[in-house]
User: What shape does this take?
Amino acid sequence: MPSCQRCRKPLENPKSIERGYGPICYSKVKKDWKEEVLDKGEQEDNDYPTLTDYLMKLDNPKCMNCKADLMRYGDIDHYLHEGGHPLKNYKDPQWIFLICSKCHYDNALKKLLHFYGKKQKSLELYTLPKDEKIESKT
Assistant: This one.
């Protein structure tokens, strides 16, 4: 049975199952997401992939530390990083990682794509074009 990604309680409602959160947790997480956006870097409208797009590229990823199922026991997060991935609505590349809720290990998306990436013709979608430079904000 699917469980809430925040509190791990079983989900029965089809809409909650689709979202991955029960109604109470979803309202709390939604509020957190809105506040968190302000701390993640400059916003812009673009055609880069979303966090969900990246997760769909993974085939049953396991924690690199304790081997727990990250799709069930993991939370996803990101921050501004020059070596990161392009991400929808963010001007600058983001370092994306899945946090294992069992051992609290930060699993880098780059490593997970290497070990658990679905077989693709190319992962070019997930790299910045070579002519794009990251501007330093000093």
Observations:
- The longest strand covers residues 74-85.
- The CA atoms of residues 54 and 109 lie 8 Å apart.
